[in-house]
Amino acid sequence: MSLRLEGVHRVGIVDDVKADAEALGRLFEDFDMQALIMPRPRPRATAEEYLSTLPPLDVLVCDHQLRNSWTVAFTGAELAARANSRPHKLPAIVMSSHVGTHEASSIHRWRADIPAVVPKQADDEEVLDAVRYALEEAAGRWSRERSRFRTPIEVLAVYLAGEAPYAEVLVSGWSLTQVAQLPLLRFEEDTGTPADTLLPGTWLRAEVNCYAPRVEDLCFAHISLAPQLSEEIRAL
Questions:
Q1: What are the angstrom distances between the C-alpha of 132 and each of 117, 142, 233?
Q2: Where are the beta strands (DSSP E) in 52-108?
């Protein structure tokens, strides 16, 4: 597969570390694309406010942790998710040095609207493939690994501490043994139910990409409370 991206001319890069933004920009320029480093947002700007200030772009690449040097009210994951879900979609991906760590739980809330999350250490091919996935989804062509299906979910444990509270769950349509993390902020947004009322043993329903190859690739959308199993059924 060619690494060049047809129709991509202007790539916006959002990163609060200038050296990282410049290094990523050189990658895209090596493949004949114009890399534009996006300016620092105004203090406490929201993701939507910042998106409204950006110039015309073909793709947006966002660092996840933007609060090391900037005073903003959003993460790169939120920025990318809102860019992808706008009426006039701006294909966007996330790059992060926290992929595969506990910090990645703060990405999970927005993962349903982010076509790809790649580590900052990724090679050229992985980065360009991620951009290609974003372009495909923006055109309405979802990959098998990202297509979502409604499935039951069993809550095993609930962790409310920290900036990104989550529940450990079993996703019936994906694996009956491997535990996944469901973002509780997404649960609250979708159900209108406070996370501190969610108990182990509760059953949910959600749209999940059940063909995801890795647990960290799972994303949840349209979460709802499911009818609970009776004590008689639980005893079987």
A1: 12, 11, 46
A2: 59-63, 92-96
Secondary structure class of 49 (helix, strand, coil): helix
Per-residue b or e along 37-49, where b marks 16 or more CB atoms closer than 10 Å to that residue's CB: ebeebeeebebee
Euclidean distance between CA atoms 60 and 95, whole angstroms: 11
- What is the distance between the alpha carbons of residues 96 and 119, in angstroms, rounded to a whole number? 5
pLDDT score for 3? 59
Residues with Cβ within 8 Å of 210's Cβ and at least 6 positions away in sequence, in order, are 148, 149, 151, 171, 173, 174
pLDDT at 143 over 50: yes
pLDDT of res. 88: 75
Domain ranges of the chain: 10-138, 149-234
- Fold classification of 149-234 is OB fold (Dihydrolipoamide Acetyltransferase, E2P) (2.40.50)
The superfamily in CATH containing domain 10-138 is Response regulator (3.40.50.2300)
pTM of the model: 0.86
Would you state the pLDDT for residue 232? 43
Identical fold for domains 10-138 and 149-234, yes or no, is no
Two structure tokens written together for 50: 């910042």
pLDDT tens sequence across 55-100: 999 999 999 988 888 888 899 999 999 999 977 789 999 998 766 5
